[in-house]
Amino acid sequence: MSTFKTHSIESAPAASAPLLKKAQQSLGFIPNLLATMAESPTMLTGYMQLTDVLNKGELSETERQIVLMTNNRLNGCKYCMAAHTTISQMQGVDAAVIEALRNNTPIDDPKLEALRTFAAVINDSRGWPTELQLAAFFEAGYSNAAVLEVIVATSLKVMSNYTNHIAETELDAGFSANKWSEA
């Protein structure tokens, strides 16, 4: 049973309130994940800033969602799988890519499949890919910077997935159409 509160702007600690306002202005609502993270201004600030930083990297929106959703699936995060399915749809990620990520099946595009595979390797190996796994990633056309951005995205998912596991975050109505469970 979770003891975590889903905060409103009014109930959140003072340092979290402006961040929740920012989320509400940008998204039109405050996702329950952010409202839960608000308990710790440190967590909420870190999560939101790391998201902003990742969005400025060299990975495209589709590539970022591939890494994020691969981690969500591997970490068994139902909340984040539903949320990122919705975000991916809103950002124009190809429906076949989204389905492959939700179902753990290969992506038809070889470069994107190499990214999905590498993201899983980073998660599964806890950051210890083999030389062959790194070489395959580079051969697919990715750079050293992309390797590091996969690590950033993996770190971001540790923050959100683990929060959702511990807090038992309730799925927002806006994400419920994309509810997910492990097959």
UniProtKB/TrEMBL annotation:
<feature type="domain" description="Carboxymuconolactone decarboxylase-like">
    <location>
        <begin position="43"/>
        <end position="112"/>
    </location>
</feature>
<protein>
    <recommendedName>
        <fullName>Carboxymuconolactone decarboxylase-like domain-containing protein</fullName>
    </recommendedName>
</protein>
<dbReference type="InterPro" id="IPR003779">
    <property type="entry name" value="CMD-like"/>
</dbReference>
<dbReference type="GO" id="GO:0051920">
    <property type="term" value="F:peroxiredoxin activity"/>
</dbReference>
<dbReference type="InterPro" id="IPR029032">
    <property type="entry name" value="AhpD-like"/>
</dbReference>
<dbReference type="Pfam" id="PF02627">
    <property type="entry name" value="CMD"/>
</dbReference>
